[in-house]
Specification:
- The chain is of the alpha/beta class and 275 residues long.
- It contains twelve helices and eight strands.
- It has two domains: 161 residues, Rossmann fold (3-Layer(aba) Sandwich), CATH 3.40.50; 90 residues, ProC C-terminal domain-like (ProC C-terminal domain-like fold), CATH 1.10.3730.
- It has an eight-stranded mixed sheet with strand order 3-2-1-4-5-6-7-8, with helices on both faces.
- Helix 4 packs parallel to helix 12, helix 7 packs across helix 12 and helix 8 packs across helix 9.
- The longest helix is centred in the last third of the chain and has 26 residues.
- The relative contact order is 0.11.
Length: 275
């Protein structure tokens, strides 16, 4: 989908830059449609030079944009909203990627009723392999959904959820890359322990995770079936799986997702207490 609106990005860090890069590379938007702002002037100048987009202050970006993407951390979102609230008119679509912050809280800082989409992308978006969960606010339209999908589809896949499910998505896909990196590091350490070089172990571990995910997605099969296909009677895989089960790997990962989900809710509660 080609987006025919002006897009403004406030707080262009790694994720914001990934979205800008993805939109331009996919042809979903052109450089002269995109406005960016950041805390440091030098950062804005760097983005303008690199991508040919337009740069300005938060207020300038808001005034020039039809769609506003808020890429700031939840801890400073309230401050940013206070600074731009008088310039965010009701004809603009607002997209927030601040973890845990409810749509209703964002709307309250602006001029209700507002069209708002809340999104939870993850860091693989920086290499075009992101997974983003999005939820529509009460006043957002199907056209707004299409625009939001086009933005996040440019850096991976997009799944629409109810807002009540976004904290769960934060715990799974939002924080998930950290869990996977830890698993890759552990597999690499294991490879070194049994005699591989660090470089070979890291390459094998990372490609194994990548290939396994690709096989799962493209085959459409249940992960249990794919696991069984690797596991022969009395073989090496079942010996390793027995050790993982004994160590409680499933339980640990489930607890990690649950803990991250709780923390996402806490961030939202902290934001609400500031209001």
């Amino acid at each position: 989908m080609t987006i025919d609106r002006k897009l403004g990005f406030i707080g262009v860090g790694n994720m914001g830059e990934a979205l800008v890069k993805g939109l331009l590379a996919s042809g979903a938007a052109k450089p002269d449609q995109v406005w960016v702002s950041a805390r440091r002037k030098e950062r804005v100048e760097e983005l303008v030079r690199t991508y040919g987009v337009r740069g300005g202050t938060n207020t300038e970006v808001v005034r020039e944009s039809d769609v506003l993407v808020l890429g700031v951390k939840p801890q400073i979102l309230d401050q940013v909203l206070r600074g731009i609230s008088h310039d965010v008119s009701q004809d603009k679509l607002v997209i927030s990627v601040a973890a845990g912050v409810p749509i209703a809280a964002i709307e309250r800082r602006l001029t209700p009723p507002m069209r708002i989409v809340r999104a939870m992308p993850n860091t693989p978006a920086t290499v075009g392999a992101g997974a983003t969960a999005i939820a529509l606010g009460e006043h957002a339209t199907e056209a707004d959904l299409a625009v939001a999908r086009a933005i996040f589809d440019s850096v991976g896949i997009t799944v629409q959820l109810e807002e009540t499910q976004l904290d769960a998505a934060t715990g799974l896909s939002g924080s998930g890359p950290a869990y996977i990196f830890l698993i890759i590091e552990a597999l690499s350490d294991a490879g070194v322990k049994v005699g591989l070089s660090r470089r070979a172990a890291m390459q094998l571990a990372a490609q194994t995770v990548l290939g396994s995910a690709k096989l799962l997605i493209e085959s459409g099969q249940h992960p249990g079936l794919l696991k069984d296909a690797v596991t022969s009677p009395g073989g090496t895989a079942i010996a390793g799986l027995h050790t993982l089960e004994a160590g409680g790997l499933r339980n640990v990962l489930m607890n990690a997702v649950e803990a991250s989900c709780r923390r996402s809710r806490e961030l939202g509660e902290e934001f609400l207490r500031k209001m």
